[in-house]
Amino acid sequence: METWQILQTIWYILIGVLLVGYSILDGFDLGIGILTPFLARKPSEKRILFNAIGPFWDGNEVWLLTAGGALFAAFPQAYATVFSGFYLALMLVLFALIFRAVSLEFWSHDEGRQKTWEWTFVLGSFFPALLFGVALGNVLLGIPLNSEMQFTGSFFTLLRPYPLVLGVLGLTAILMQGSTFTILKTSGQLQQNARKISRTIWWLYLIAFILSFVVTFIFRRNLLGNVVAWVGAILFVVALLVMRRSLRLNHERLPFMLSSAAFLVLWAIVGAIHFPNLVNASNDSALSLTIHNASSSELTLTVMLIIALVGMPIVIGYTLYVYRVFKGKVQNEGDIFS
Predict the structure, then answer these.
(1) Where are the domains of the chain?
(2) Is the pLDDT of residue 331 over 80?
(3) Is the dihedral of CA 292, 76, 296, 270 positive or negative?
């Protein structure tokens, strides 16, 4: 294998690592955002939830920005195709994330309209959680591309059964992250509510996973021949079964760890069945974007790899430091957003 091909493969894996990090870390605060009305009834309980994610949510989103930047630098043609083709959907995600961020501040200070800002936070968490999975489903299923590798469909082209099912799978994974993180970080009635909701989400998660395999068999049967995907599916089911038992035994840390592991396995399955493709072309496989025909030059990939080897340890170290400083249970003392 040539050096250029090795670099292309390394960057495929690195972008995958960044997406996994974002999914696991920002997944729990998106999940808590969606579940806030179901987890907490009183303002004091909601404040505990917001304080639980307050030190982390903005840092978690750095992983998404870094993944987007890495995709732009390593595979600019894929970046251009995806961001132009999914423009409206991505703008919806962007505005949702903006309103989600400011809603926390306004909820804390605008007491007369707390209910409005709470639902702004809920919806601002829901739409990204759903649309990220829908976007991934379209990348796997394939989108219509012309000879210049440009998207030729419309917004409604993206709303097909297969991507929507994967969107629901991603949504349930994020809900599980949120509910199990609540178990980890809270106590009392909030924790009891989170345990109850986690057991319900567990069934939805399993059903969504099974349904995703069904639609894959219908629309992309060729993907099911991948051995790594089957190994991943087995590991995913094992993680879910152990998670179910840990919820019954009232473990605090283990459910979140298993939820994160299940999320990791889902991404491993996606990476295995999609490699070396970046964006499938539904109208002509010859037009598909791969790590080979959509990558930057060997020099660019080399320089970026050096930068990544310096920057990634800093990002990981900062993340570990923040989670260490703010470890333990959250109490209703003060306001993270003051």
Answers:
(1) 3-325
(2) no
(3) negative
